[in-house]
């Protein structure tokens, strides 16, 4: 696994730079690009009625895979929306490359430039039939601080803490997690919410995690529970199980830097301890 840096600013920064007003959109999964584009525009118009710096969309935020295979390029639409409304925009969408379909997280700045991407690494059994898995964690500087993207299952699996450890050591302040929110078992909601809240606290990072609700392109419904999490104040906003919602919060420098200098954060091992397992 490699770490890739996207330098939106020339100077290497080590701390969060300034407060950021964020929105996480919780929405139904669009089954066509016409519906998806209209839905995104609707939510962004509503979200920008008050000052906001960054808006997060869920995984598969624009359309289903059929239209991607047919040549539709969702990032072009998303870039135009960010440019029109002058906001940072993140989410995840399928994209077609020469080697096949990738499930790609993206961050677009206010001028419509893609300043960071992440190809989903931990694929579901449904995705493994077609999607090309990513193999890198990507970190990019912004005017607010360092950010990274994890797409859905990248953030809550049994080895997710290893990913977050890599990101923390790279100086990440905010982890963006667009999700599909599939309700595949009785534990799905608990695994999602408990994992992200614990990871935010263990690794001293903000998390912004938009998700989906209702029916989608799979046999499983979506469970919602979009999240905005602070490692100090913990849950800043959490979506319902089944309603479309716009969640908002301010991620402030003070709370992040304060918690990073408490004994709870300082008294942690610098690296994963090497141990032997002895079976008797």
Rg for CA atoms: 18 Å
How many domains, as an integer? 1
Rounded to the nearest angstrom, the distance between the terminal CA atoms is: 34 Å
Series of secondary-structure elements, N-terminal to C-terminal: EEHEHHEEEEEHEHEEEEEEHH
* Number of H- or I-type helical stretches: 7
Helix content: 25-40%
Computed structural class:
alpha/beta
* Shape field: globular
CATH topology: the name is: Nitrilase/N-carbamoyl-D-aminoacid amidohydrolase
Instruction: Provide the β-strand percentage band.
Output: 25-35%
State the name of the first-level CATH class: Alpha Beta
- Give a count of the beta strands, DSSP E runs of length 2 or more: 15
Oligomer: single chain
- Major sheet attributes: 8 strands, mixed
- Residue stretches low in confidence (pLDDT < 50, at least 5 long) are 7-13
The average pLDDT value, as a whole number, equals 93
Structure commentary:
This protein is an alpha/beta fold. It has one domain (2-6, 20-263): Carbon-nitrogen hydrolase (Nitrilase/N-carbamoyl-D-aminoacid amidohydrolase). The protein is built from seven helices and 15 strands. A hairpin with a 3-residue loop joins strand 13 and strand 14 (234-238). The longest helix has 16 residues, at 188-203. The two termini are 34 Å apart.
Would you spell out the secondary-structure blueprint of this structure?
Layout: E1 2-7, E2 20-28, H1 33-47, E3 54-59, H2 65-69, H3 74-85, E4 88-97, E5 100-108, E6 114-119, E7 136-141, E8 146-149, H4 160-169, E9 174-176, H5 188-203, E10 206-209, E11 212-214, E12 222-223, E13 227-230, E14 234-238, E15 245-251, H6 253-260, H7 263-266
Helix pairs in contact: 1-3
């Amino acid at each position: 696994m490699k770490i890739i840096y996207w330098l939106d600013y020339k100077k290497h920064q080590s701390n969060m730079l300034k407060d950021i007003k964020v929105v996480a959109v919780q929405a139904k999964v669009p089954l066509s690009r016409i519906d998806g584009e209209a839905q995104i525009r609707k939510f962004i118009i509503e979200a920008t009625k008050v000052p906001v710096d960054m808006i997060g969309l869920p995984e598969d935020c624009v359309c289903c895979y059929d239209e991607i295979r047919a040549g539709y390029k969702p990032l072009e639409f998303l870039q135009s929306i960010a440019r029109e409304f002058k906001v940072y925009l993140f989410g995840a969408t399928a994209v077609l490359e020469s080697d096949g379909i990738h499930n790609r997280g993206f961050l677009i700045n206010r001028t419509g430039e893609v300043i960071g991407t992440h190809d989903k690494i931990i694929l579901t059994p449904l995705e493994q039939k077609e999607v090309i898995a990513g193999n890198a964690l990507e970190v990019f500087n912004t005017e607010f601080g360092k950010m990274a993207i994890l797409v859905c299952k990248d953030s809550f699996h049994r080895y997710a803490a290893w990913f977050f450890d890599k990101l923390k050591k790279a100086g990440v302040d905010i982890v963006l997690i667009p999700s599909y929110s599939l309700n595949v078992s009785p534990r799905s909601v608990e695994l999602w919410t408990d994992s992200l809240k614990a990871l935010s606290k263990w690794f001293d990072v903000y998390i912004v995690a938009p998700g989906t609700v209702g029916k989608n392109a799979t046999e499983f419904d979506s469970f919602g529970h979009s999240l905005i999490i602070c490692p100090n104040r913990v849950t800043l906003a959490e979506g319902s199980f089944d309603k479309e919602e716009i969640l908002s919060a301010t991620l402030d420098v003070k709370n992040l830097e304060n918690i990073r200098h408490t004994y709870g954060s300082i008294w942690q091992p610098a690296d994963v301890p090497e141990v032997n397992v002895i079976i008797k």
